[in-house]
Design a protein that fits this description.
60s Ribosomal Protein L30, Chain: A, 5 helices, alpha+beta, 5 strands, 5-stranded mixed β-sheet
Length: 153
Amino acid sequence: MGYDSHRFDVDRPLILGGVLIPDHAGLTGHSDGDAVAHAVIDAILGAAALGNVGSHFPPSDDMWKDADSIELLRAAVEVLRDAGRSVVNVDVTVVCETPRIGPHSDAMRARLAEAMQIPTERVSIKGKTNERMGWIGAGEGLAVHAVALIDEG
């Protein structure tokens, strides 16, 4: 299971699952702030007990400043492969009031699947609101949950 959350930042573009979401505030973060990619990285690395996004791509390292998180995902998949494992499937839930995730889910699925070298049919992305409760409901940011199944080989 992977999790990530970020506050919205009007001075950044919004990138989720490697897809630019137009006309919406972006997310804070050391890299591009792609909370979907970060949660997926945590899910696949965690399933293999290989650390997390921060241990492989620490925010204290300027090398990762404004990095493309899809490239970080590709690197995490290589870490997984070096350990003799591969991604079987991934299920992602994005919790936010805005933007609407549905119109972008197919593009996100394709980007994530390509980065993980698995068929698009094995990647699920869905959006849920927080029913206007808490900081997510107030529109301050979003959170992402990801679950991954990995296999040996």
